[in-house]
Write a structure and sequence with these properties.
heterodimer, A: about 200 residues, mainly alpha, 6 helices, about 80% helix, B: about 250 residues, alpha/beta, five-stranded parallel β-sheet, about 55% helix, globular
């Protein structure tokens, strides 16, 4: 069974890959990718069941934070049922989305701003080295250079230093890091394609 | 022309991976020291002894796009971490922000228990999908980090700025944090929030440093060879442009 799953995965992976280089494989590539999208949709349902299983288990065991778990399960089931009955485009469902889900995510984004500011303040205490000093100086310069003032850009910092730092130093560094990440992704992808790494089939 | 070049790079990489793996299969790999990964290896040993669990966050990278690379690297690390900590009283917990990744997380953890010979100890609810958007995922993962007796948060995968929330909760609960992301924003947040962040391709070295085998250490060598080829090409291109050849 394990060999069969590996053979199927490798064959499918190769056909999808060949579709990028040879026109003869484009049809089968599209078909397989469409199947993958459908399977990803089914996986979403499995993921939601997993979420329900974890949180109902917490409620049953009366674990710490069990109240939140109960609230999550109730909200999840209610949203699912209402979504099925009313359809996602219905006004009530839109109110749920725009009135609860989006503001909660926006709040977390707002919290993140404070969290990052706090992390930057604590950085030198955590790791007092040259790179940390550069990190903070760069962040402050970019921050000041991007600030919108009634009088316009901050002189020199906004017009000269920020573009110089962000478009030359930062862009060069970012490209270097992204090349490294791309090479890592390429080699990792090949390991999975060859069946060396098999995060499927229970082995 | 571009697709031919891409195919060429792909075939070259595959060839190098095969050759390097064959040549180095009997030798002991030597790596430069990466403080975060040294700490990770030490943490694995300690977690079994101190009666606390590890939380491995695999991020919200989809397997259907380019972010899948970091997800697979995270899964490779998860496989070894699970195997090494499976006999602990407090089993490791893994969280994912993508449903397909969540399924593979379950499969990978089960494989880790199987490899350790204690498959009966595997609890399916230890691998979880905590949310389907970056912030809902982070919120769910934060709950695990602060409420489930976690000693170390290991973040390996695709994380954006929301990694800062997980880093903050770890900091507040005195939980050790080891973080790696393939996303630039996530990397900078982790750099500012953790003791030793993994930058760039160091994320993909996790498996090799944890002892995943010859293929992982061969991958690092291949990445180094390709990196030198890119450097030479860039410098050659710049020199050719300078002298007016291209």
């Amino acid at each position: 069974m394990r060999v069969l799953t590996a053979v199927i995965a490798i064959a499918v992976g190769l056909m999808v890959l060949l579709g990028y280089f040879f026109a003869e494989f484009v049809g089968i590539q599209t078909l397989l990718l469409n199947w993958a999208v459908i399977l990803a949709g089914v996986a979403s349902l499995v993921g939601i069941f997993n979420l329900i299983a974890v949180h109902t288990d917490k409620v049953r065991r009366a674990e710490k934070g069990g109240v939140y778990s109960a609230l999550l399960v109730i909200a999840l089931v209610a949203t699912f049922v209402f979504g099925l009955i009313l359809q996602p485009q219905h006004q009530i469902m839109q109110v749920l989305l725009n009135g609860i889900i989006l503001p909660v995510e926006a709040t977390l984004m707002g919290l993140l701003t404070i969290t990052l500011l706090y992390a930057a303040i604590r950085l030198l205490r955590r790791r007092a080295d040259v790179m940390s000093v550069f990190f903070i100086i760069t962040a402050v310069l970019i921050f000041l250079g991007s600030a919108t003032l009634p009088t316009g850009d901050v002189p020199v910092i906004g017009t000269l230093i920020r573009p110089w730092v962000s478009q030359i130093w930062a862009l060069g560094g970012a490209r270097g890091i992204l090349i490294g990440v791309a090479l890592g992704t390429l080699v990792t992808g090949l390991r999975v394609l060859f069946g060396i790494d098999r995060p499927y089939g229970g082995k | 022309m571009t697709s031919l070049l891409a195919l060429g790079i792909l075939l070259l990489t595959a060839f190098l991976l095969l050759v390097v793996a064959l040549l180095t299969r009997n030798s002991t790999p030597r790596f430069r020291e990466i403080p975060a990964l040294t700490r990770l290896v030490r943490t694995l040993g300690l977690s079994v002894e101190d009666g606390k669990r590890l939380h491995i966050s695999l991020g919200h990278g989809s397997l259907l796009d380019e972010r899948g690379g970091s997800a697979f690297a995270g899964l490779a690390a998860l496989r070894i971490i699970t195997e090494k900590t499976s006999v602990s009283d407090m089993p490791s917990v893994a969280s994912a922000g993508d449903p397909a990744l969540g399924l593979l997380t379950q499969d990978t953890m089960q494989a880790g228990y199987q490899a350790a010979g204690v498959e009966e100890l595997y609890v399916p609810t230890t691998s979880r999908v905590t949310g389907l958007t970056p912030f809902s995922y982070a919120a769910g993962a934060m709950h695990i980090a602060s409420n489930e007796n976690v000693s170390t948060n290991i973040m390996i995968g695709h994380f954006g700025p929301e990694a800062g929330l997980l880093a903050d909760i770890s900091d507040r609960d005195y939980v050790t944090l080891i973080g790696a992301s393939d996303n630039l924003a996530g990397q900078s947040v982790l750099y500012a929030s953790t003791q030793d962040a993994l930058i760039g391709e160091e994320l993909f070295a996790t498996g090799a440093y944890l002892g995943a085998g010859t293929s992982h250490s061969a991958s690092l060598t291949v990445q180094d060879i390709l990196r030198w080829l890119i450097i030479i090409t860039l410098l050659g291109g710049a020199a050719a442009k300078f002298v007016g050849v291209i």
